[in-house]
Automatic annotation (TrEMBL):
Biological source species: Candidatus Syntropharchaeum butanivorans
InterPro entries (alphabetical): DUF6506
Lineage: Archaea, Methanobacteriati, Methanobacteriota, Stenosarchaea group, Methanomicrobia
Name used for this protein in its record: Uncharacterized protein
Length: 111
């Protein structure tokens, strides 16, 4: 049986049913990738994919807050690991500058 992982990322213009893919090796690994627009959609996707695909691990992009992570963990139960990809200070600044330049935050009404 393959190790099944769900990776979630945020984008203001995401459509979770459209912006997704699955990558799998012949035997050991199956990675589901979904881009969501907000926390509500993230929780819906997590619940659905855990139930339908038997996900064992969820990896979240750095945009998820501690509260978001706690909500996801509570929503999916204690039998699925929840992890967060985090960068160092310089990496975070680089990413934020690109996102700001591309209008991510203005679309959310934050700038």
């Amino acid at each position: 049986m393959a190790f099944k992982v769900l990776f979630l990322a945020h984008a203001p213009d995401a459509e979770a049913e459209k912006h997704r893919c699955v990558i799998e090796t012949p035997k050991y690994y199956k990675l589901f990738v979904v881009v969501v627009k907000d926390q509500e959609q993230a929780i819906e996707v997590c619940k659905k994919v855990v139930k339908e695909e038997g996900i064992q691990s969820i990896l979240l992009c750095p945009g998820f807050t501690h509260r978001d992570i706690a909500e996801i963990s509570e929503a999916i139960g204690e039998n699925v690991g929840v992890f967060v990809a985090r960068g160092d200070g310089p990496s975070n600044r680089i990413s934020m500058e690109v996102m700001r330049r591309e209008g991510w935050f203005s679309e959310k009404g934050r700038e």
